């Protein structure tokens, strides 16, 4: 048996050779690169997913996507049984596997060593849930995963075309005896849409949600949103633009484009008094925008969702008389300084700062009864502890409580069911946001007016080797190259309300520069000065 497995793997190594001299690491969100150089890494990830599934005796997810990256890129990320990102300790195995060349004896020896260490056998059961985005390269890459996983006798559940958050959801449901929902796409839609409908219908005086126009980045989210739009058409009017029928994936559209360039997707003429949003290529990020009466473009990013959700949840907890609930917000260094200030000093909500990457935010959010996490780029969700879920459920059923208290508890329960707790989910976040608008009678302008962003600018810098940049303190301080941080400090000190940091991207071959300052002109100037410093120190 082992001999046959080794033989099959040997054939795959010949069929999908590793390009000479290539090194890759499991980054912010798995492996990402130009799609044509990826098949060999799929061979290794099919093996790793199988081992993970055997060890956990549970279904593990494999998502083929490069999310916000250009269409020519692709990637792979693994999903753990409860729908979380792959446990960080396993990133080491992923990186080790990626170092092996195509020598079957050496690779097989390592696989056997791992199986020994992890106490699993090739014939142990393993179930892998596989899905992909709309990239042309995705289906062939998924096929490599399938072939490689079968070397270790894994059973493949093929979910075909899905958003990344949908796959996280089905993995969780499959392993959770369906207590989180049914492990199908229909189960996903049913859970979210029913909860949205319930929340609106149970809330007295809730306004009918206004029309929302969604730029779907020409990605997988377009198809899925159209289903939601049709299903909820009596309650909310969702229009989908950039639906993949004309433009290219993430090309001058999508959440990353809108957030980074602070402008609307190309070709969309914004009409006053309408509400817009953008999702990204695999529908895990969401940003809102509109044009105000002065014809200025206004954007609401991930920081704004944290504030909105914290405020809604706080109000409902108070109305339900559920006291002593520990709510916390998790951000990264990209969070606008004004949002952090507003959360801490106006809303009195504790804020934690962690490195970029949903895996870090998700982990930290588990420290709270209600952990709200969002990256400024629009990637985020809310986690509710079992304890608070039970308290809410008990409050709903508690006849000794007033009708108002029970209603608030019921609204909280429905809100929890809209949210995809496994990972940031643009569709779930859109429905949650629209429900809050309707219940709180809030307009997008009022949401924006809660606080004023400090002007900011983000830049990408191409350098010889981005790993030369190393950071600490949740990426706010640069430790290498030597003296670069001193230079940044010196530059920042010239600007009123200045703040800037640099970090290597984990999804693109660039160094990212973030800057904020008192005026937009200053933020632009500061970002540019820091960019020049990065170029000088990495030459
Ligand atoms: C991924 C991660 C996010 C991260 C983003 C950018 O998003 O899931 O947590 O913020 O990459 O990462 P980096 O700055 O390291 O390139 P997505 O939407 O591309 O999967």
From TrEMBL:
<feature type="binding site" description="via phosphate group">
    <location>
        <position position="67"/>
    </location>
    <ligand>
        <name>Mg(2+)</name>
    </ligand>
</feature>
<comment type="function">
    <text>Catalyzes the conversion of GlcNAc-6-P into GlcNAc-1-P during the synthesis of uridine diphosphate/UDP-GlcNAc, a sugar nucleotide critical to multiple glycosylation pathways including protein N- and O-glycosylation.</text>
</comment>
<feature type="domain" description="Phosphoacetylglucosamine mutase AMG1">
    <location>
        <begin position="301"/>
        <end position="440"/>
    </location>
</feature>
<dbReference type="GO" id="GO:0005975">
    <property type="term" value="P:carbohydrate metabolic process"/>
</dbReference>
<keyword id="KW-0413">Isomerase</keyword>
<feature type="binding site">
    <location>
        <position position="282"/>
    </location>
    <ligand>
        <name>Mg(2+)</name>
    </ligand>
</feature>
<dbReference type="GO" id="GO:0000287">
    <property type="term" value="F:magnesium ion binding"/>
</dbReference>
<keyword id="KW-0479">Metal-binding</keyword>
<feature type="binding site">
    <location>
        <position position="284"/>
    </location>
    <ligand>
        <name>Mg(2+)</name>
    </ligand>
</feature>
<feature type="binding site">
    <location>
        <position position="512"/>
    </location>
    <ligand>
        <name>substrate</name>
    </ligand>
</feature>
<dbReference type="InterPro" id="IPR036900">
    <property type="entry name" value="A-D-PHexomutase_C_sf"/>
</dbReference>
<comment type="pathway">
    <text>Nucleotide-sugar biosynthesis; UDP-N-acetyl-alpha-D-glucosamine biosynthesis; N-acetyl-alpha-D-glucosamine 1-phosphate from alpha-D-glucosamine 6-phosphate (route I): step 2/2.</text>
</comment>
<feature type="domain" description="Alpha-D-phosphohexomutase C-terminal">
    <location>
        <begin position="481"/>
        <end position="531"/>
    </location>
</feature>
<keyword id="KW-0597">Phosphoprotein</keyword>
<dbReference type="InterPro" id="IPR049023">
    <property type="entry name" value="AMG1_II"/>
</dbReference>
<feature type="binding site">
    <location>
        <begin position="375"/>
        <end position="377"/>
    </location>
    <ligand>
        <name>substrate</name>
    </ligand>
</feature>
<keyword id="KW-0460">Magnesium</keyword>
<dbReference type="InterPro" id="IPR016055">
    <property type="entry name" value="A-D-PHexomutase_a/b/a-I/II/III"/>
</dbReference>
<dbReference type="Pfam" id="PF02878">
    <property type="entry name" value="PGM_PMM_I"/>
</dbReference>
<dbReference type="GO" id="GO:0006048">
    <property type="term" value="P:UDP-N-acetylglucosamine biosynthetic process"/>
</dbReference>
<dbReference type="InterPro" id="IPR005843">
    <property type="entry name" value="A-D-PHexomutase_C"/>
</dbReference>
<dbReference type="InterPro" id="IPR016066">
    <property type="entry name" value="A-D-PHexomutase_CS"/>
</dbReference>
<protein>
    <recommendedName>
        <fullName>Phosphoacetylglucosamine mutase</fullName>
        <ecNumber>5.4.2.3</ecNumber>
    </recommendedName>
</protein>
<feature type="binding site">
    <location>
        <begin position="503"/>
        <end position="507"/>
    </location>
    <ligand>
        <name>substrate</name>
    </ligand>
</feature>
<dbReference type="InterPro" id="IPR005844">
    <property type="entry name" value="A-D-PHexomutase_a/b/a-I"/>
</dbReference>
<feature type="domain" description="Phosphoacetylglucosamine mutase AMG1">
    <location>
        <begin position="184"/>
        <end position="287"/>
    </location>
</feature>
<dbReference type="Pfam" id="PF21405">
    <property type="entry name" value="AMG1_II"/>
</dbReference>
<feature type="domain" description="Alpha-D-phosphohexomutase alpha/beta/alpha">
    <location>
        <begin position="54"/>
        <end position="89"/>
    </location>
</feature>
<comment type="similarity">
    <text>Belongs to the phosphohexose mutase family.</text>
</comment>
<feature type="active site" description="Phosphoserine intermediate">
    <location>
        <position position="67"/>
    </location>
</feature>
<dbReference type="Pfam" id="PF21404">
    <property type="entry name" value="AMG1_III"/>
</dbReference>
<dbReference type="InterPro" id="IPR049022">
    <property type="entry name" value="AMG1_III"/>
</dbReference>
<dbReference type="InterPro" id="IPR016657">
    <property type="entry name" value="PAGM"/>
</dbReference>
<dbReference type="Pfam" id="PF00408">
    <property type="entry name" value="PGM_PMM_IV"/>
</dbReference>
<dbReference type="GO" id="GO:0004610">
    <property type="term" value="F:phosphoacetylglucosamine mutase activity"/>
</dbReference>
<feature type="binding site">
    <location>
        <position position="280"/>
    </location>
    <ligand>
        <name>Mg(2+)</name>
    </ligand>
</feature>
């Amino acid at each position: 048996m082992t001999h046959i497995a080794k033989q099959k793997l040997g054939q795959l190594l010949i069929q999908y050779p590793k390009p000479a001299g290539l090194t890759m690491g499991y980054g912010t969100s798995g492996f990402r690169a130009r799609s044509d150089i990826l098949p060999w890494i799929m061979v290794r990830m099919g093996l790793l997913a199988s081992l993970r599934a055997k060890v956990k005796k549970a279904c593990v997810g494999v998502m083929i996507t490069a999310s916000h990256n250009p269409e020519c890129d692709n990637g792979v990320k693994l999903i753990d049984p409860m729908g979380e990102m792959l446990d960080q300790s396993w990133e080491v195995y992923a990186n080790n596997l990626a170092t092996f060349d195509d020598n079957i004896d050496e690779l097989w020896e390592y696989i056997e060593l791992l199986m020994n260490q992890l106490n699993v056998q090739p014939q142990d059961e393993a179930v892998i849930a596989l899905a992909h985005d709309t990239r042309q390269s995705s289906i062939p890459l998924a096929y490599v995963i399938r072939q490689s996983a079968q070397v270790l006798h894994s059973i493949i559940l093929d979910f075909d075309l899905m958003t990344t958050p949908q796959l996280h959801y089905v993995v969780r449901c499959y392993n959770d005896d369906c207590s989180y929902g049914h492990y199908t796409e229909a189960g996903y839609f049913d859970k979210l849409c029913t909860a949205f409908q319930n929340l609106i219908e149970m809330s007295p005086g809730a306004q009918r949600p206004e029309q929302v126009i969604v730029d779907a980045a020409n990605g997988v989210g377009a198809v899925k949103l159209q289903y939601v739009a049709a299903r909820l058409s009596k309650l909310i009017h969702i229009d989908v633009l950039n639906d993949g029928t004309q433009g290219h994936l993430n090309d001058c559209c999508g959440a990353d484009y809108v957030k980074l360039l602070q402008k609307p997707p190309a070709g969309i003429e914004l009409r006053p008094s309408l509400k817009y949003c953008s999702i990204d290529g695999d529908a895990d990020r969401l940003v809102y925008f509109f044009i105000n009466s002065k014809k200025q473009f206004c954007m609401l990013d991930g920081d704004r969702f944290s504030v909105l959700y914290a405020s809604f949840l706080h109000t409902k907890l108070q109305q339900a008389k559920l006291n002593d609930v520990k709510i916390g917000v998790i951000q990264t260094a990209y969070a606008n300084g004004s949002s952090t200030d507003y959360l801490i000093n106006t809303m009195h909500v504790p804020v934690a700062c962690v490195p970029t990457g949903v895996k870090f935010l998700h982990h930290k959010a588990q420290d709270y009864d209600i952990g709200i996490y969002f990256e400024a780029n629009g990637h985020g969700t809310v986690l509710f502890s079992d304890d608070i879920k039970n308290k809410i459920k008990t409050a709903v059923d508690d006849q000794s409580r007033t009708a108002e208290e029970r209603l608030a508890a019921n609204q909280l329960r429905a809100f929890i069911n809209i949210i995809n707790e496994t990972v940031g989910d643009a569709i779930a976040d859109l429905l949650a946001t629209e429900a809050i608008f309707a219940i709180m009678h809030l307009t997008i302008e009022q949401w924006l007016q809660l606080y004023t962003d400090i002007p900011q600018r983000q830049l990408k810098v191409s350098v010889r080797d981005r790993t030369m940049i190393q950071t600490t303190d949740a990426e706010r301080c640069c430790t290498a190259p030597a003296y670069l941080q001193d230079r940044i400090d010196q530059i920042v000190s010239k600007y009123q309300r200045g703040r800037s940091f640099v970090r290597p991207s984990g999804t693109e071959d660039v160094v990212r520069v973030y800057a904020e300052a008192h005026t937009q002109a200053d933020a632009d100037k500061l970002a540019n000065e820091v960019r020049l410093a990065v170029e000088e120190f990495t030459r």
